[in-house]
Amino acid sequence: MSLDTLVRLQRGRHTPAVPPRRLPVPDGMTAPMGCDAVAVPARFGPLVMPRLPRVGCVYADEAHWWWLVPSDSDYALEWPAPSRYDTGALVPDAPRLPDLIHRPDCTLPYTPPIPLYLAVCRLTDTTPSWSRPITA
Fold first, then answer.
1. What is the 3-state secondary structure (H, E, C) of the chain?
2. What's residue 70's pLDDT?
3. Model's pTM, two decimal places?
């Protein structure tokens, strides 16, 4: 590889302006299954909440709302755009840690991922991945 090619490749790399921040599990709560997070644009947040049978910890800032879900809740699921699945509950490009806006009464911080997935699919007019026809 030539030096010129290497320089072009280095310039093409994206270095985040702000290191990712991890959404914390609140004091007094446990996360025995680990934590990931599902983010939606802030305008969808208030529309998702009433569609859920149980709501775990929810964090928000001006741009997004995040729901804590058990680790690997993206297994075999294609979360529809504009939602985003954040492994390890790491929030990229957040200038500060989002605020905790909902905390459940129990000791588990999780929102059940399947109802959350279905609510996001409904709001984005996306057919759930298990309902799509198989293409060859």
1. CCHHHHHHHHHHCCCCCCCCEECCCCCCCCCCCCEEEEEEECCCHHHHHHHCCCCCCEEECCCEEEEEEECCCCCCCCCCCCCEEEHHHEECCCCCCCEEEECCCCCCCCCCHHHHHHHHHHHCCCCCHHHCCCCC
2. 98
3. 0.82
